[in-house]
Amino acid sequence: MKKIVYVPMAADIIHPGHLNIIKQASQLGYVIVGLFSDKAIASYKRVPLMNYEQRKIIVESLKGVDEVVVQEEKEYDANLLKYKPDFMVHGSDWNNGPLSKPRERAIELMSRWGGKIVEPEYTKDISSSKLNQAIKQRGILPHERLGLLKRALAAKTMIKGIESHSGLSAMIIENASAKDIEGNNQSFDFLWISSLTDSTLKGKPDNEFVDLTSRIVTVNDILEASTKPIIYDGDTGSQIPHFELMVKRLERLGVSAVVIEDKIGLKKNSLCEGESVQHFQDTIEHFCAKIKAGKQAQLSDNFMIIARIESLILNVGIEDAMNRAQAYIEAGADGIMIHSRQKDGREILEFCERYNALENRKPLMVVPTNYPSLSEVELEKAGVNIIVYANQLLRASYSAMLETANLILKHRRAFEADKKYIKALDLINLIKGN
Questions:
Q1: Distance set, CA 39 to CA 12, 72, 93, 268 (Å)
Q2: Catalytic residue positions?
């Protein structure tokens, strides 16, 4: 009887390194490939380019593979305990990085029944990360980008994005990666195209003065600089016929979702306060009609319309917000965004608790601009599915530009300011083709 060999794989981009591992594994016995689920991959790096079923078809066809089973977590415990393999084969690249702790656990488990870990030397000059980077440089087609947001939501309980206001900011977000305080890799799942930052960058008020045609110029710049999915801030969506055209245009470009708020009249930014600032909320019936019209206008199932509720902004209470959430979902909204000015975030958490009880619950989105002390962990625990850092990059760039301008004025030269920013040659080298 052949010995059992367990080979865990993500196999999103098959390359010679995978084939080498399978070849060595097949020489040891019956090869079972534990293929990571989309959720397992997304727990420690990006959402895979191909979904689980697509990857399974490819792996099953590889020479030397006898069986493919799903691995639901990045940790190997469940499948190792289920199959108790004689050998576990994994490339030596897991010695460092996000799989180093699961490796230690796998070694301990395998030792319980006398199993052996086999670690073929990592294939030089090739890796999934390098291949993925090459794919990023080539870009992505609109229909491929369109469905990425829904796939990310299916693979993760919570996704996060940050505002992009230019091609350069999109490049930064595309490649931004850092380890959190627990040592886990973190990156942004999507880009948020904010009406506030888009208007501000143009020196215009955030009151829908900058029209869709002008904002699409920004969208196109960002599309060319990033492969991540995009959520577009659609303000009120304007009149219903205008919103239908907005949906068609955004979907055609490959934008994954649009957020529209249930306000009417001359738009004022929701964070504005004072007696001179008046906000007017749309009726539930009219806003539902707008959602329905938008859903009927879209051509694919991948495009999402997210309804933004302003009840907490207008101080009309959580009960009103809940009534609207239920109505908007019944009208066809693919998600709900709840907004708040309160700095402690308590009413957001209270709304989350109420919202989670809905039978037909859809993904919930928040923008913690005014309650930045609430962490992603706390918001995810409360049931939030989408977190947006809505204007931090433009605010940071304004502060940096203002400081630089003042330093140059103060010292009447650029020497002191030069310590604060990127070198000119490095800036030039950011863009391929310079």
A1: 13, 7, 21, 39
A2: 206
